[in-house]
Amino acid sequence: MKTLKRKGNGILNREVLVLNQNYQPLLVCTARRAICLIYLGKVELVESYHKVVHSPSVVFPLPSVIKLSRYVNTHNNDIVLSRRNVLKRDQHQCQYCAKRSVPMTLDHILPKERGGSDSWENLVACCQECNRKKGNRRPVEAKMPLIRRPKKPNKIYYIRQFVKREQISWRPYLYMEPLGLD
Question: Residue 101 has what DSSP assignment?
């Protein structure tokens, strides 16, 4: 019986931190994309994992951090408002009862029918039970206080959530520890 590889398990799907020319964190891409950019001369390799990628004629160190060769103006540093990003911001935890291991929905703090908007400040992760219990009311009316007041995340905070044990080399570029310039 054939076993299918799930998307995201391969070495080329590893996450790579992309920095602007001035070392400002921009985004996270896959190692496959980073290797293409290195090959095309659009980025420089700054840090690599302790693995290599082989082609018939070339051996590449597996990139961990890359830096753009040219400076890119980034006027819009906003994180896209999406279900996935709200759940990530709230750490997949219900903002009313603190449950984590249950299916999550999004809840409008001020319901849409009462003028609430789709915004970072009005959407929170919520378990289905609390969503039904709260219904079309505000948290105060339902006597369900929020654990944390929702706020819009910034780009660096968002990228920090990708840092795992393998991405220890990202930490200085995300202002999580001093840059080792020994």
Answer: S
